[in-house]
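User: Thanks for the earlier help. One more: Transcription factor Spi-C. Can you show the sequence and predicted structure together?

Assistant: Of course, both are below.
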Amino acid sequence: HNNRIVETTKQTHSGEGKVRLYHFLFEMLEDPNMAHCVSWVPAAAGVFRFSSTNKHQVAALWGQRKGNKRPMTYQKMSRALRNYSRSGEIFKVKKKLTYEFSRETLTLLRKCHIL
């Protein structure tokens, strides 16, 4: 009995590791189909903005990607983004719904995305 439970958990939790929000956002920004939700302003500087009308769609997709049982809200997701500023990965820009990847994070994401 216990062996079966262990095997099932291994199967569901194996695969890719924990997805980070900044990596998910970079994928969304690089997907032209998601430009109506989140877009570069400009990409060269690593600055991006959420659409005021579709920001909740990004949050919902993030919640699904994480495997959350409860729906993710934009408020919860933006709290996580603010926490990134403490670790120096993403910073809030003084414009509404606008953030900026740190140079180091952006370089890392671009390297990962090329592979």
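User: Great, one quick takeaway?

Assistant: The longest strand covers residues 47-50.
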